[in-house]
Amino acid sequence: MLGSFAVLRKESLLGDAISHAALPGIALAFIITGAKDSGILLLGALVSGLVGTYWIRGITSKTHLKSDTALGLILSIFFGFGMLLLTFIQKLPNSNQAGLDKYLFGQAATLVESDVRLMVIVTGVSLVVMFLFWKEFKILLFDADYAKTLGFNTKFIDLLITFLIVLAIVLGLQTVGVILMSAILLAPAAAARQWTNSLSTMVLLAGLFGVLSGVFGTAISASQDNLSTGPVIVLVASVFVLFSMIFSPGRGLLFREIRIQRNRKDVKLMKTLQFMYDIAKEHENISHPHTIRILNNFQGYSRNSLNKLVEEGWIEIDGNDWAMTQKGFKKAADMYNQQLSND
């Protein structure tokens, strides 16, 4: 659900950068404490992710570098530093990094009851905060300047949204890992965006798609041997995105192609009627045999176009001959006059 705000704020790459920036925090938390407690490691990931986010904002606000450059820099630097720390941990005589691999690639099967309990608590708190500040988030999302005029502390609201997104990313690291976390954050929201223009509906749909991705991905992974749960969840979420991109009524590729073809047929129909009008307007009687003969000698119309025009009552067909009706002539004249007024 929080991924919806990242998508609408055009900060999709922020999720990727934060998830990679969390890796050195996990490694440092282990080096400092020497414990593989999930709570401590996730706290380290949260701090590291927030530091990475702060650096990204600082680079974009205090330099001439664009946000994509800042995101790429922080992602590469933090991830490289994290891999260096993991290599260092692996070579320590009294420890190994086996327990930390799950944060790199995700190992949902290793989650224990305490991990799930922590996820439930943090998720619940995050959703409560999101709903409490719903109005502020919505105003800031669509019109930050208007939010300032209303007296809202836009910096605090912006930081709160970012903090919740970072928290959501850190929370999912054990499930899908650093590499794929941005996908599970963004894919359900991207799928939901195809179906609606309403923020509340999008957020609810994103939550639903996320739940279904987790349920089906886990079920598929459990039904087969040697299938990692995290990647399967991401693949299921990707299927939702692909389905939404093709079949959503408003933005789907299929319905857009149908609308394009329909518009082309309508344009062709109007052009056919206008061509008839250009010929018929030169004669006082549009039903005069001479006019009909001129119209029938014109070869620019398909039989399908003529049948459509008959259905509209704009022309009449008698055997192989056809002629414009008064209704069709008036329709074409109105189109012609409207075009002149637009010009």
Keywords for this structure?
2 strands; ABC transporter involved in vitamin B12 uptake, BtuC; 2 domains; 2% strand; Arc Repressor Mutant, subunit A; single chain; 343 residues; two-stranded antiparallel sheet; mainly alpha
Description:
The chain has 343 residues and is an all-alpha fold. The chain has two domains: 3-179, ABC transporter involved in vitamin B12 uptake, BtuC, CATH 1.10.3470.10; 257-342, Arc Repressor Mutant, subunit A. It has 16 helices and two strands. A hairpin with a 2-residue loop joins strand 1 (315-318) and strand 2 (321-324). Helix 2 packs across helix 9 and helix 2 (12-33) runs antiparallel to helix 10 (173-193). The longest helix has 28 residues, at 253-280. It is elongated and about 100 Å long. It starts with a helix and ends with a helix.
